[in-house]
Amino acid sequence: MEARLELKLSQKLIMTPQLQQAIKLLQLSRLELQQSVSQELLENPVLEELPQEAADEGDEAEGEAAPEGTQEKLPDSPPEPEVTGELKSDLELGPQWDEYLNEMGDGRDYGNAEADDKELPSYDQTLTRLPSLSDHLMWQLRLSTSEPSLVKGGEWIVGNLDDDGYLRSPLEELAQQSGVSPSEMAQALELVQSFDPLGIAARTLQECLLIQVRQLDLLGTIVEKIVQGHLEDLEKRRYQNIAKVLNVTIQDVMEAAQIIIHDLEPKPGRPYIVADTHYVVPDVYVFKVEDHYVIQLNDEGLPRVRINPYYRKLLSRKDSVDKVTKEYIEDRMRSAQWLIKGMEQRNKTIYKVAESIVKFQGEFLDQGISQLKPMVLKDVAEDIAMHESTISRVTTSKHMHTPQGIFPMKFFFTTGFADGSGAEVSSLTVKDVIQKMVKDEDPAAPLKDQQIVDVLKARGIDIARRTVAKYREELRIPPTSVRKRLS
Predict the structure, then answer these.
(1) Each residue's pLDDT tens digit, 160-184
(2) Which of 369, 389, 412 is the last residue of a domain?
C-alpha cells in the first residue's frame, strides 16, 4: 500500500452548455425556433435583430448600430477594440468563426416582402365568422317558444351536445342540475329534436336516423324497418339476411340502403365543425435545375441576429463599468455567441441531411412514390459521417418541398421488401400498390388479403398475409365483406 501520482489519458463526452444548446436548436421546428430566438432577443441585451433596411441594402453601415459586417468605419467611430481577459478565450473560436462574427452577411435574402393591398383580406372577412352549431340551435329555440321552463331546458340540452350533435348526458341528470322537471325536460328535448339539422340532440345512432326518417315522411317503409332492427346487418352489407327477415327482394333492400347511406346523416353536427387550417411551411426546398437538384434552406421569417457592437466596445473600456456589470455582459456575450453559432450549425446540418436524402431518393423525385427506396437513419448517418441520433433530431418536425409535393423528412425513412430482381422495395410503395389494386378491383368480387399476397408475389414482392392486413388497416381500407357491392 502506497500513495503515488500517475497520469492517465482517456476520452469522454462532456455535455457542455454549448453542446446542449446546439442539440436543442437542432430538433426545434421552424415555429419553435422563431419563438426561441424571439425569447432570447427579449432576455439578452447583447443580442439584437439585424434591421430590415440593413439586410436589404447589403449590410450597409448606419451609424452606431451598423452591422458588424461593415468593412468601412465612420470617421468619428473609434477603432474596433480588442477584447481581453477571460472572455477572450471564449471569443477565440477559430479564424472561420471570427470571420463569421465580423461578416454577418452571407449573400442570402432574409427580408420579408411587404404584403400588397391585394393580398389583404377584405373588410367583411375580418368581421364575420361562421355560425356554430350552438348559435344555430339557440336562434331556433328563441323563435320556437317563450315558455321559461322550455327555454331553460333547451339551453341545457344545447349546451351538452357534442361535436357530432348527440346528447350524451342522461336527461334525468340534466333535469336535476337545471332545476327543470323531468317532464318539462323531455318536452324541451322533443322541441330541440325538431330543429335543423335533422337528427340533432339524438342519444343514439338509431334515434338520430329515426328522427330523420320521420321528418322525411319515410315511416312504414323498408328504410324505417332497417333502421329499427337491422343496422348491424346493414353495416356489414348482409343484404340477404335483411331481405329474408323482411320478406322482400334484395333489390328492395339495396334501394333502401342507398337512401340510408346517401340521404340520412349519422352525424348532424358535422357541417358545423370548423376545422383549423394548419399550413405547412417547408424547411428545405428542392428544385431541379437542368439535370441535377438544387437544395435551398428556407430562411424566410426567421430573425437574423447579431451581437450589438456597443457592448463589445463597452467591455474594452476598463473604467466605464464595474466588475459585476462586466461579468454580466461577458456572460450574455457568450450566450449570444452560442446561439448564433448553434443556428449556423443547425442550418449546415439540415443542408447536409437534405443533400444526402436527395442523393438516395433521386428516382423518387423524378418518378414518384413507385420509386421510393427503403432507407434508414444509419444510411444517411454513414453518408455524412454523423451519428444516427443527430439525423433523428434533424428530421424531427422538418418538412421538405420537392417536385412530388411537400413531405416530412421522416417520410423518406422506410423499411423495405426484396423483389424478384434482388432490389428492395419501400413499404410505402407496397402500400401504394395495394391501394391501387383495391381501387381497380371488381366491386362484386373484392380482393381478399390472400389474393393481394398472391398478386404481390407474382410481381416479385414477398410479403406475409398479416402484413397486407396491417397495411390495409393503416390505409383505412375496410375488409372484403364491407367492400362487396351486389349488382
Answers:
(1) 999 899 999 999 999 999 899 999 9
(2) 412
Four-point Cα dihedral 179, 181, 182, 185, nearest 10 = -80
Does the residue 363 lie in any domain? yes
Number of structural domains in the chain: 3
Return the top range by mean pLDDT from 105-114, 348-357, 458-467: 348-357
Across 241-265, average pLDDT? 91
Is a pLDDT exceeding 70 seen at residue 89?
no
* Pair (137, 268) in one structural domain: yes
pTM (predicted TM-score): 0.61
| 65/329: higher pLDDT | 329
Q: Which residue has the higher pLDDT, 382 or 82?
A: 382
Domain that holds residue 451: 416-483
Could you tell me if 374 and 440 lie in one domain?
A: no
**Per the domain annotation, does 143 fall within a domain?**
yes
Burial of 464 (0-12, 13-18, 19+ CB in 10 A): exposed
Question: How far is the C-alpha of 205 from the C-alpha of 268, rounded, in Å?
Answer: 10
